[in-house]
Write a structure and sequence with these properties.
- Helices cover 34% and strands 26% of the residues.
- The protein has 254 residues and is an alpha/beta fold.
- Strands 1, 2, 3, 4, 5, 6, 7, 8, 9, 10, 11 and 12 form a 12-stranded mixed beta sheet that branches.
- α1 runs parallel beside α2 and α8 crosses α10.
């Protein structure tokens, strides 16, 4: 049986962890180093850190944030936001990241996914896919970029399949409709992505109950469950989530 992983996510802005709803209404969620250390101690399998303003502000990822967080953890760290080139990726790895997540830059220049996978290995390259519901798209989901601000008129599920062909190792889909709402992952979107690729899929956006994590795996097809709000504001601990998943018959590492 596949081992299901739990991945807290640090959305970063101005040196602080923040959390919004539908990619807006941002509020403070603490210090990144303290949060990272806490989540590792709790048993998180991996950690994500996303510089949410980097692309919108047309700048690179803040490497000092990566260094500070990577220095206090040993679990794999995925860093995203402002990744535009192979040089950016190399610098993020040198700062202590284990994987990178790219979104807007991959849409703008798909060759970057291929080049990055060839140089660094597919297992280190995650493509994040943000989408919103649009019935005019074949799958019903439209790709959006630049922190959810810009729809691009492309089908999000078809883009996931293309990313696999380009060499991506992980797909991280987030539904803008569910982000931060605590109403549950967008299972239809997550499942559509999982069915379109043969890669690990990270469920993201909207976890609010323990049942939501279970549904992301069983109904959504995810092998990694990412969450922010419920962990940052201490609704649940990582261990609570893992114990619940195990009680429902899923394999986790406690």
């Amino acid at each position: 049986m596949e081992i299901i992983k739990v991945m807290p996510c640090l959305d970063m802005k101005n040196g602080r962890v923040v959390k919004g709803v539908h990619f807006a209404d941002i509020r403070d969620a603490g210090d990144p180093v303290e949060n990272a250390r806490f989540y590792q101690e709790e048993g998180a399998d991996e950690l994500a850190m996303l510089d949410i303003a980097a692309t919108v502000e047309n700048r690179r990822t803040r490497l000092e944030w990566v260094r500070q967080v990577s220095a206090v953890i040993t679990i794999p760290l995925t860093v995203g936001g402002g990744i535009h080139s192979l040089t950016d990726i190399e610098q993020v790895f040198q700062a202590g990241a284990d994987k990178v997540s790219m979104n807007s830059a991959a849409v703008k220049r798909p060759e970057l996914v291929c080049e990055a996978a060839e140089r660094f290995g597919s297992d280190k390259i995650t493509v994040a896919i943000d989408a919103r519901r649009n019935p005019q798209m074949p799958s019903g989901f439209e790709l959006v970029v630049s922190g959810g601000t810009t729809p691009v008129g492309r089908d999000a599920v078809a883009w996931a399949a293309e990313c696999q062909k380009l060499g991506a190792g992980v797909i991280l889909p987030t539904s803008m409709d569910g982000d931060g709402t605590l109403q549950g992952y967008d299972l239809e979107f997550t499942r559509a992505i999982a069915d379109a690729v043969n890669l690990p899929v990270v469920a993201s956006g909207g976890a609010g109950t323990l049942e939501h994590f279970y549904e992301a795996v069983v109904r959504g097809g995810a092998s990694v469950v990412l969450a922010a709000s419920v962990f940052h504001f201490r609704t649940f601990t990582v261990r609570q989530v893992k114990e619940y998943l195990r009680s429902r018959g899923l394999e986790v590492v406690l």
